[in-house]
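Today's session is about reading a structure prediction critically. Students often jump straight to the picture, but the first step is always the sequence itself: look for stretches that repeat, for charged clusters, for runs of hydrophobic residues. Only then move on to the predicted structure, which in these notes is written as discrete structure tokens rather than atom positions. Here is the chain we will use throughout the hour.
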Amino acid sequence: MKTRTKAPRGANDNAARREEERIVRAVLQEFEARREARRGLERGWELNMNFLEGNQYCEIGPTGELEEEQARFYWQDRRVFNHIAPAIDTRCAKLAQVRPTMSVRAATGEERDLRTAKIATNVLHSVSEECGLDAAVAGATIWSETCGTAFYKVVWDVHGGKNVFSANGTRAEGAVRIAVVPPFELYPEDLACESVEEQPSIMHVRAMSVAEIAERYGVEVAGSDICEFSFAPYSASGNFAGGQGGSSRIVRKNSALVVEYYQKPSAALVNGRLTVIAGDRLVYCGDLPYENGPNGSRTYPFVKQYAIAFSGAFFGGSVIDRMIPVQRAFNAVKNRKHEFLNRLTMGVWAVEDGSVDTEELLEEGLPPGKVLVYRQGATPPQMLGADRLPAEFGEEEERLLDEFILVSGVSELSSTTQNRTHVTSATGLQLLIDLDDTRLAIPIDSIRLALRTIGKQILRLMRQFAGPRRLMRMTGEGKRVEMYYFSSADLSSDDVVFETDTDETSSPSKRRSLIYELYSMGILAGEDGKVSEETRERVLDALGFGGLDSARGLLPLHKNKAAEENLRLVNETVDTDWYDDDGAHIAEHTRFLLSDEFRRYAETDAKARFVAHLRGHETQRSQKQRSRSDTVQE
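Below is the predicted structure for this chain, in token form.
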């Protein structure tokens, strides 16, 4: 976020310098206290990341840091049979389908509110596409499924957007930016407060290179090596290096901490307060910059998304927390099973002392065809051990696999397409799939709620910073792409409501199946039993074939021409053309006459021109029908 320096400066002003040092010291002390208070949570998140990536022989030691588990014996197998990663992959794949379409609903039926809702909907869709909202949701979902919680940061980038010309030269018009914030970077004041908005204060801490700090904030700070997860000075002795495929702490070279300290608006701080510390320098201290709260209030630019909600806790939980004990037990069972199989195949030999050359036997073993020479009169070497694999190994393995399904909420039908339930009917299989979807209801609701809040903040930021004249590409009448100018005053978020798809039609397959059923039952047909062109067009759009406008005939073109004639008929007389589709033109002209927009022209001559134009279409349609009838008779 680009900021301006508001801290008091001056080489000769010792009081101002001491005040700045006091603010920096107080903020950094508060950050150290918050980091120490949630150290246990961070180590749990790191443990989840290691288990997800395959380093599953680590644990949180007595000191509260991650430690590598040592093998009890040198010969023990320590292989990893990762069932956590496929379960998380399946959950993320299912959650990737949750992309509800957001729209803005007018508060009333007045033409002004309808126009505001239409503009706001197009602005919302355009900005969401430009700032990569879908990619941000995918990244945040991975963090929330791994650590339990993820955050979005919705900010205004003054250097984003297109370049525009002004009296002072070329400048950027600004744009909304949405960044994914890992849980490691956010430090709330109250770990027991569940809501972001109710937090008294929040800290956003990042490790940033000194070059980027100089470019962004215009100050020179000293750099060092920083552990990015714990935001502490790097120490080789305290750094946990995960095994192969494991997750170790990332070290940022020549970097410094940037602490953004957000304080909630209160009686003493009407607009809240934002304090930004880069290294040991104060670079900003002032009001919260964004009017992103209800009714123009200022609040935090953060939106929370969680996998599992906990009562009385700010950070949520992950299914990996519940799967770790099962994964440890499964690894132990599989490794002991393989060790037992090795004993059955390679054997444990009993050798009488002095009967054979033990060094040769240890080095070469007993390969097939080997001639074993032992001392005369001595007992020959013999193999010890059981002669079969105990059944308890297989039974325990099956129980653990079933426990994986119970804990993760992902059945074999979803992850491996295997069906061990012996259900063969289509209805029964669909019920099993719906059951898996039901287990994901909590993270799905969290994503929907986060998207709704993000949409509100997008419109509020556009209302604050868009300016009096801004160009945007939007969908106009007849689905034509138009370049449209709007102002920030057109985005009144106080009179709009956000809507999302319902749960029953959130899945594309469910939506298509429902449309097919409605079509088969004849509900979409008119009184004559036929499906109109307009209804067919809407059905194709809902099925995802909205790009087939050119293959659906001339109806969209006739509607566009009729819409243009509506604007001309307000001020002048327009004649009908013989090639017009009179039915489509009559419908469009009548719709405009009945709309609220036409009320402003009701007292003018526009109504008479519309009536005359409609009669022209009626006469022309009758002539065409008589002409076709005469042609058929001939």
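Discussion point for the tutorial: The two ends are 77 Å apart (CA to CA).
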